[in-house]
Amino acid sequence: MTAKQLGQAQADGRAPINRAEVLRRASVLSGVVVLFVVFSSLSSTFYQPSNLLDILLQSSISAITAVAMTLVIMTKGIDLSVGSIAGLSSMVAADVATSAGVGLAIFAGLGVGLICGFLNGVMIAKLKLPDFIVTLGTLSIFRGAALIYTDGQPIYGLPPLFRDIFAGQLLGIPTPVLIAVGIALLGYVVVAFTGLGERIIATGGNEEAARLSGINIDAIKVTVYTISGALSSIAGFVLIARIGAAEPIGGQGFELQAIGSAVIGGASLFGGIGNPLGSLVGAVTLGALQNGLTLINVPSFWQFVASGAVVILAVLADRLTRKQR
């Protein structure tokens, strides 16, 4: 089977799945169920519709960046700059929105994200630089650019239309939730039913075999990092719309939440495996964990410990699964 055929088989769900992989997926699902059962028993408000909606709302930004991170991870890469891209693009969008209108602001902010992601992809794919080093460097560069752009000052006075689009409600559902779900569904369609998804899977599964089968590896890598930049911009839009202001330090920590959500949702750091809908579940899982711990009055610093432990366990499960394939 060529890399292209393997990618298509995995995308269509026909790739063989061994017992270890089935166990891993079942473990993730069981963990989510147990998490909800435990917190619902410890707090009477956990299962209240308003609290569940709040969990979805709080998880929306992580879910958007997790979809972006999943596509990158599937190519056996990593993007540590998603938070900095979100911060820079949201500063540009806020500045343009307050001076030239919402439509142009969205266009400008997305343009910044696309350019930043494209630059990451070119340095990784064309210059053959390690993805970790490149995105660690651009994490600092893009953050510095955001600080330079407004001399470190926040931008206030976002137009109501901008806030309505990215932090309003539609039929009683917060628009950030709808945006996150829509992006996750679109990501799933791309991965499962398109040639691009097939090539992403093949690239991460066996890069050399994919290259020999005629796949343009460099183009795939540039594409996924560019998409990651665009989605990071959208996450930044949601952030500033929710808080009502844009700050150059906005988006700090997005990369950790994105990686954690993607891994919990089934993305393999070894490449070739991932599911954008699973990343949505992963983001909600981390959000539910933090929300539940808050409701039972666990100090915030212990919440960081718990979230980190969950991510490490997910990576360990992925590693053990890989060994048994």
Observed structural traits:
2 strands; mainly alpha; ABC transporter involved in vitamin B12 uptake, BtuC; single chain; 325 residues; two-stranded antiparallel sheet
Give an account of the 3D structure.
With 325 residues, this protein is mainly α. The chain has helices at 3-11, 19-42, 49-74, 82-100, 102-125, 131-149, 160-167, 175-193, 195-205, 207-212, 217-243, 254-264, 276-295, 300-323; strands at residues 169-170, 173-174. It has a single domain (3-12, 20-323), classed as ABC transporter involved in vitamin B12 uptake, BtuC, CATH 1.10.3470. The protein contains 14 helices and two strands. It has a two-stranded antiparallel ribbon with strand order 1-2. Helix 2 (19-42) runs parallel beside helix 13, helix 8 (175-193) packs across helix 9 and helix 13 (276-295) runs antiparallel to helix 14. The two termini are 17 Å apart.
Topology (SSEs and partners):
Blueprint: H1 3-11, H2 19-42, H3 49-74, H4 82-100, H5 102-125, H6 131-149, H7 160-167, E1 169-170, E2 173-174, H8 175-193, H9 195-205, H10 207-212, H11 217-243, H12 254-264, H13 276-295, H14 300-323
